[in-house]
TrEMBL record:
Lineage: Bacteria, Bacillati, Actinomycetota, Actinomycetes, Micromonosporales
Any one Pfam family match given in the protein's UniProt record, by short name: Flavin_Reduct
Organism field: Actinoplanes missouriensis (strain ATCC 14538 / DSM 43046 / CBS 188.64 / JCM 3121 / NBRC 102363 / NCIMB 12654 / NRRL B-3342 / UNCC 431)
Domain Flavin reductase like: 21-165
Molecular function in Gene Ontology: FMN binding; riboflavin reductase (NADPH) activity
Alphabetically ordered keywords of this record: Oxidoreductase
Protein name according to UniProt: Putative flavin reductase
Keyword Zinc assigned: no
Family: Belongs to the non-flavoprotein flavin reductase family.
């Protein structure tokens, strides 16, 4: 389709914007930590992005209505795992409501309390650096304290409200 100004719309209803935003592929990350009761807490996010090398910063956007973020933000250390191709079930479990999200998701806990997803393509232990309210979300800036990655493992990709893998050109 060749775009013309006739295609542009001033419609900014959430469903239309979700459809438009869904045209931009993103990776899928998990943000997880131990809760005060010692159980793993976490969620899947598609808004993860790298921010800075010096200082080492990444960001995620958390929905204002999230019931998981208020629990996670209290943790001194958060685990961020960039999910790999083949981890669609883990992503779906971490995005679900009303279930034990970690029942069938292999994970480990670091000595600092970060929860990392086994089999991911990258892992980071982070701490909240800053939070900025932005519309119906909060942009959370995270300082990376430790990290590891396996670039040979292809990432899981979210596009058009569905999970995909990468295809090399």
């Amino acid at each position: 389709m060749q775009i013309t100004t006739a295609h542009l719309s001033s419609r900014t209803e959430p469903l239309e914007l979700r459809r438009v935003y869904g045209c931009f592929p993103t990776g899928v990350a998990a943000v997880c930590a131990l809760g005060e009761d010692g159980t793993a807490n976490g969620m899947a996010v598609s808004s993860f992005t790298t921010v800075s090398l010096d200082p080492p910063l990444v960001s995620v956007s958390m929905q204002s209505t999230s019931t998981t973020w208020p629990v996670l933000r209290q943790a001194p250390t958060l685990g961020v795992s960039v999910l790999a191709h083949g981890q669609k079930a883990a992503a779906a479990a971490l995005a679900a409501r009303g279930i034990d999200r970690f029942a069938n998701v292999p994970h480990l806990t670091t000595p600092s309390g970060a929860v990392l997803i086994d089999g991911a393509t990258a892992w980071m232990e982070c701490a909240v650096e800053a939070e900025h309210v932005a519309g119906d979300h909060t942009i959370v800036l995270l300082r990376v304290h430790t990290s590891a990655g396996d670039p040979a493992r292809a990432p899981l990709v979210f596009h058009g409200s569905r999970f995909h893998g990468l295809q090399e050109l």
